Fold:
Amino acid sequence: MDTRFTDELWESITPIYQQILEHPFIKGLTDGSLPAPAFRQYVIQDALYLQDFARSIAAATAKAPKDAWAETLAGHARDTLVVERSLHEGLFKDWGITTEEVFNTPPSPTNLAYTSYLVRVAYREPFEEVIGALLPCYWIYWEVGKQLEEAGSPNPDYQRWIDTYASEEFAVPVREVLAIANEMVADLSDARRARVRRHFVTCSKYEWMFWDAAWRLEDWPVKGKE
Ligand SMILES: Cc1ncc(CN)c(N)n1
Structure:
């Protein structure tokens, strides 16, 4: 398989990926120093995030110009999320947090900005751009999972998180979406490839920001009656 396009994409985010690995949230997963409230906030926000992520994959499915890609993505909208949801549900059960509480939590400013961007691209832009926006969500998590796997974590919750994203179950859809990304650009002009890259870089920045928001226990600076 020709992986030149995705190699180029990864090259375009190497400084961002490096900063992700150096972020205290990520470092704190392996050395155990991540404060529990930051992890809890992250997992709750992530459960909200996944709702829009799934809808964005479904929109990509509807736009797929090839049946084989539509079938693959339809499977992701259902199955990929099952793996991540089971991680979340296990943690919520251990923490005594109900599904109702989770889904009644307002999205943080960063979460809302990221998911709004994803959904906007998914509904407004052509198929290849939607894949560009979705790709960091798959790929960065897999790379981070693999990177942290060797060090592991003294904290069982953080170890579960690492195991999920380093797992073969998570790797399969990542490889599939990478294959779609490399195939879909075969006949694309440089200008259209650049638009894919722009979304890829933007969403990679949002990935860093998502962990950072939880680390800072981000909240809205002003409040109404919610
Ligand atoms: C914010 C975020 N980005 C990506 C993933 C991996 N699907 C996730 N669970 N959360």
